[in-house]
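Consider today's protein:

***
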Amino acid sequence: MSERVYNLLITKGIDPDDQYGFYKERIDSQKDFLYKEYNTQDNVLTDELFEEIDVIVLLFGLYHNNQEIFDELFNKSNEFNVPILLIRFFGMEFILKELEEKSDAVVGWNPHCIVDAIETLVNGEDWIKPCDVEES
């Protein structure tokens, strides 16, 4: 078990389907995974913040109502070399190809896959695992 605490910046905003709440339930179910949360609604997105962030977690279900913040996060990801983890809309495999291509990893809602993707990206490895294929 790792004692590492991951600094995650999570998209939060207009969210009629409560994708954020569902994500929090999933990630919090992983008792051996420690993280500090920053989010796009409650935190000022300063350069200093991006220097601390390990992974930017984008919830695809929030994309259509929050496109400007997604664009800003993709730009900051490139500027500060912070990997992006894109999580599909719950219950759907579809994802916009342009977002998938800009992301370092794409997973569904399996909490083990989310944690595995975060740990893999932070370790500087490429995400190549189709971890959640069984969810379709």
User: Anything to note?
Assistant: The first helix runs from residue 19 to 28.
